Amino acid sequence: MPMNLVLLSQTRKPNYRTSNIILSLLPYLQSSLNCSVIMFILHQIEGYKDIQKEFISPTLHVYTSPFLALSSSRNTCFSIASKEYGSSALYGFIDDDCILPDPHSILKILSLYEGDTFMLTCPILTADTKEPFNRHVFVPKHRLLLSRRHYRSFLGGAIFTTYSAFIEAGMFDISLGLGAFYGGSEDADLFLSAMNQSIPVYSEPSFYIFHPLHRPYQYSFSTMYKYGLGRGRALRNHLSSFPVFIVSFFIFEIISNFALAILSLLGINIYSFYRNFALFAGKLSGFSSCLPK
After folding, report:
1. What percentage of the chain has pLDDT greater than the value 90?
2. How many other CB atoms sit within 10 Å of the CB of residue 68?
3. Residue 293 within a domain
4. Which pLDDT tens digit goes with each residue over 47-100?
5. Is residue 267 within 8 Å of residue 213, measured between CB atoms?
6. What residue numbers bound the domain in which 284 lies?
């Protein structure tokens, strides 16, 4: 059973210490009495060619690296951390703009989980309204064992996994995610890989994460198109494992995006139109793409 919580993040800010996740965790990372919460940061700076150790303390490990796509940087950070902590930790992937209010609440519930192979997610709420981050985020009343149909609720800003579960699921697909050609859905792909390996994945309501609210106008057509590419490719990756499920949900997603695009156009909501049409086009292209992973 994991005894430590190792949090993994990456930042491109000039000063990693100003990241929301670092600021929210400082009281825990600076504690000399309890070293059960540890953080590894991959601080990405232009001009670096190799990963270099910049600063290290018993609870905060910082490595300076060249720019890497999101999935590559997460896999790299995990590889570095797991060399030291192995199977004795629960690893959490958290975006640097998120806030984790109480990491000790995660440690408290670990004893309730059986075995050394499982994944967790938790509700992601907007930092200002405390409402679910998007329409796929839900807050279960009790711990919930997720099924394949929950792949859209398994978000990259709140993934917690044991060492063996992450390895068995194949880690993140480096062709997916921010900075890669298929610019999203690395989280959904990891979730479906876990399902394929019969790894239990839970939604845990006893803790949560805050994420900044994104306004519709913050999403450009190209950004949403890349998100769509990622979703289409992620579903295509698992077509042979879950053919009926994948085809059904893919058709449902593209019909939904197309219908919302038309309704938005009729309602003269230009942001919603661009967003949904870009997702529709991206998903079609990603799913039918013959490019290698």
Report:
1. 47
2. 20
3. no
4. 777 888 877 777 888 888 888 889 999 999 999 999 989 888 999 999 888 888
5. no
6. 219-288
